[in-house]
Design a protein that fits this description.
CATH superfamily of the largest domain: FAD/NAD(P)-binding domain
Shape: globular
CATH topology of the largest domain: FAD/NAD(P)-binding domain
CATH architecture of the largest domain: 3-Layer(bba) Sandwich
Distance between the termini: 90 Å
Structural class: alpha/beta
CATH class of the largest domain: Alpha Beta
Number of strands: 21
Radius of gyration: 24 Å
Number of helices: 13
Amino acid sequence: MPALPKYDYDMITIGAGSGGVRASRLAGGYGARSAVIEADRVGGTCVLRGCIPKKLLIYGAHYADHFEDAANYGWQIDGVSHDWRTLIDNKNTELDRLNGIYLRILRDNNVDLHEGKGILVDPHTVEVNGKRITSENILVAVGGWPSTPDIPGIEHVISSNEALELPERPKRMVIVGGGYIAVEFAGVFAGLGTEVTEIVRADTVLRGFDEDIRVSLDEELANRGIKLMSETVVESIEKQGAVYSMRLRGGDMIETDCIMYATGRTPNTNGLGLEEAGVALKEDGAIIVDDWNRTSASNIYAVGDVTDRVQLTPVAIQEGRAVSEALFNNNPTTVDYANIATAVFSTPPVGTVGLTEAQAREQGFAVDIYDSRFRPLVHTLSHREERTYMKLVVDAASDRVLGAHMMGMDAPEVIQGVAIALKCNATKAQFDATMGIHPSAAEEFVTMSTKRTEPDAAKAAQ
């Protein structure tokens, strides 16, 4: 008679977001006894509160541009109006559909779903809804949660979570923050007709991105009527009837109908029992892992935003895959974090891969810069003043393209292809030898032939 298994499962995953679902479904598909624990619906931040619903709202807001631009293309569109409730209801219907797909994926791969919050009792035991289950390996994939500063009145603000569920669109809105989420939601609400003010502690939006991209997006946000208040700090918030009053450092006041904070996310590790199970955490609560996603407890792993490495859905998915490949498919795998392409679905959007100009110089490269700013063909008839900006950062010694950056229509779609070239260590000469697709904005990446003259060099030439 075969011996009974020592544990209930080969792997229990806490958190059914993108990384957790990928890991648990692969484990089940490879024949492991796999379970996932989720306190909310299956799908995680990306599907339920992030990438997908946000992008649907962005699509909805873009129709305002389409209707406005259509007139100069001969279309006569009268009586256009927007119903916020319809957009939110249809978005929720789509999220229900995606949640159903994720549930089916787990069932089809023999993954048990335990609903409730999972809390580690010891390195091999998790308690969920008063029931204890055991596993040889445990994977923590609980993601992150919006964080806000500790100031008076902070209880009156919403995060991106609530912004996706507002019962009605506010007439006036203040968004605090300058990262991905802040600029994306600024574009959504401004596009739908809300008067938007964006408050940024830094000099402008998208700190950490290439400086020319930051400046270019700053200009386009202003062109769209978004009031950007840089180097500004909120000291306190008060509710006065249906209006919120914000006091700024320096004494200025702002009144608005809705305040959204997008000032970062914190790893969602509170109350999980991680430290009791021997899992070391960073000061901000992020789980410390090695190259194999293993924590300080040898049988406990962590992937995704909870590790605070690269907070992107495709990265979490690859990390989750790596865990199951190593544990259950005899295929030790690590994730390559170099040249990860990313996009900001602002209005207009940004796509970027590789090093910024500043990063390249900090790393000791002597760089050649090629860039281009132009009006997209579509706007020659629409008469919209929006510009596209594109930039290549090239190692002057080897001719290798170190970074590619774009702000403008379809930037994320364009950069995805360029990212393959950078992954292959393509040179500027190889970019130049590539035939462009005409007429397209993307062709500019293979036709930029003139190096940008640096200020010092220009002075010397004079």
